[in-house]
Amino acid sequence: MKPARLLLWLVLAIPAALMLRGLSSGETLAMDLLHPSGEMAVRLMVLALLPGPLAEVFGRSRFLCSWLAVRRNFGVAAFAYAALHLAFYAIDMRLFSAMLEELALPAIWTGWLALALMIPPAAISFDAAMRRLRRRWQQVQYLVYAALAAALVHWLLLDWEWRSALVHFLPLAIAWGLRALHRRNRKGKAA
Amino acid sequence: MKAFRALLALGVLALTASPALADGNVRCNAGPTAAWKPLSEVRKRAWQEGWTVVKAQIEGDCFEVYARTETGQAVEAFFHPVTLQKLLVKRRGSEVYRAPGFTG
What we know:
The complex is a heterodimer.
Chain A: H1 3-25, H2 30-49, H3 51-58, H4 62-93, H5 96-101, H6 106-123, H7 127-133, H8 135-141, H9 143-159, H10 162-190
Chain B: H1 2-16, H2 39-48, E1 52-59, E2 62-68, E3 74-79, E4 86-91, E5 94-98
Antiparallel strand pairs in B: 1-2, 2-3, 3-4, 4-5
């Protein structure tokens, strides 16, 4: 692993390390780690999805090129935080039967769905899979959009607090909006 | 480039902002804190419901209790800090109980 990438992963691991330290020392309850771990997963998903539309609109600046080069790492880290989120949930619920019992609640199954949708893109996030799958690889990565939508619904149903969710999703919505405008303008010029 | 910087600033702001929890929106109309019962009383009140308390705290002007019911369901309940009346119970964001006449 390159030193820069190693450094990135160390930085990405800091919040998880702090969460685990709080849990193991008994200072923090598992239920109190549900929000921060879920939020980290969403933030990292947003970081993985943002550079694509931004590069299309603003061109491939050095900064955006570097961001594009590491976005897969953000995606994999998002999955890791989502898995950690599930682990905290399991610790909090204590019993598997209790987890199963509330699986049918919309606020819960949307979370499971978001995690399940993240599994295929995360599982093929390495160079060899990218080379072998080619176009298919890109198609599998689109599942992240569905995962993000499911995560948004999961968040809204649990919290009923649209402002915090909106704050996280707004940058992406703006970037997608700008990209749509950019594509329309380009099409208009070409015609 | 200006638009890009503004967008970047917005993104950073969005990703570092700390979200407010909706639970803070529940209003118990509890009045001055001098008249409030100690938090330990609400733990006892929840125990009387047959619940196992995971956490009890003050949220806005309510006592908020996170607990497991006798059947193991995870619930979040709001109690009046003076009367200790059970006002609202939520299960994973869905309301499962509301005291008659409570609108907070």
